Amino acid sequence: MSLERLVIFDTTLRDGEQCPGASLNIKEKLEIARKLSALKVDVIEAGFPVASPGDFDSVKEIAREIRGSSIAGLARALEKDIEAAARALEKAESPRIHIFLSTSKTHREHKLQKNKSEIIKMATDAVRFGKRFCDDIEFSPEDASRTEQDFLCEVVEAVIDAGAKTVNIPDTVGYAVPDEFGALIANIKMNVSNIDKAVISVHCHNDLGMAVANSLAAVKAGARQVECTINGIGERAGNAAMEEIVMALKTRKKFFGADTRIDTQHIMPCSKLVSSLTGFFVQRNKAIVGKNAFAHESGVHQDGFLKKKDTYEIMNPTDIGLEESELVLGKHSGRNALSKRIRDLGYKLNDAELNEVFREFKILADDKKDLFEEDILSLIQKQKFSEDDLTTYKLENLRCSFETGKASEASVVLVSRDNKRHESKASGDGPVDSICNAIDRITGLSCKLIDYQVMSKTKGRDAQGEVTVRVVSENREVLGKGVGVNTIEASGFAYINAVNKLLFKSKSGPLGCGEISGP
Fold first, then answer.
1. Rounded to the nearest 5°, which phi and psi values hold at 21?
2. What three-state secondary structure class fits 497?
């Protein structure tokens, strides 16, 4: 049986990053793009160039470096958006401009105040304008699943005539159900006369928990591109999860009659990277990449699994990059063993970076009996994604006391960029509150801690804890992260990380330019 090729369009760096609190810096975006390239993703939507100078620079840098995957930039059906996308994509090996415009009655009347003929003119004008800069144009009729089907077909036919090579049918608000969405794709294939000149794509949101199911129903009906994100991150309830779509097609090839070129062994490393950098943890029972996805606790399941794996496992964990055995590193390990493990994890460090990771590795090894993969990843990411250029204060020393029935007290020593030491003491409702209060006295900021999470990064009682905080000051919200065996100390590092971002933003000013979302 011959299988048709399905294009995987990853929008982790665009729609995924629009998830509230998931903002990434350029270094982080570039590292994710490298992992997506290793996955052999067909199209990487690198961002929304007109949204901010930072987004423009990220798309430009990814377009300059990444090869082997098409690089897309999102644009509204506006000339300024399309020009910004074209400029950002100038160095791309294979650029794509992705243009979107709302088409549903609700959006036409309440968002755009445009009639049908005006929508078609805006769409076709935008596609033709985009063709001046780039041959590969994708068009998305936003909120397609709630658009009148005859009008949707009219729009799709018009933009293909104007030059669009891909037409993406978004379920923008996650309203569709699988049978209905599959029928919509079949209707487009049947009633758009020039549909053979374009690839049908789908972009499904997960508001009703059916993004993956809707995407797969569309594939069964003839869609040959799926837009998705790592771990399913995205606005509101997220997007279709790339790993679930890819592994469903790999596992059920005969049923779907389609497959991808994705190198699935890179799925787990990419999932872990996105989770760590965005601060959005993957639930334990998440399909494919959750911690429990390949775990068996029931005695009956264990017995069957030991006799024959596929009694309770339909996929091989090694196919997604999971190791069935762990290389345990400890304080007696040498530089070569650590260097090899880092290479095995898919990272390249220069000598200076390796020296710093090895130094911190030895310090951590004294605190822990065994070191696991997650420990090494934490050290690597701390080194590679440090933001020294954003750092106003570094936490040098921290003391904290706690006694039942009494207020907690903390003293902190911060070192500023000019190497001056600043010391402060404060009390609070608990250790973390007293640390934050002491830091605020030095920095002069008035911050509100709106979210605080601690996640075990490794195993055992001496596991490293990753602390993630969300902090608001003067309507600016930032994410801060800290890692360490001592979670109270890690809380201090996380809070000062967030404070440094606030101080940097107050110097550089806002980057946004209004309400911009996308399909």
1. 90, 0
2. helix
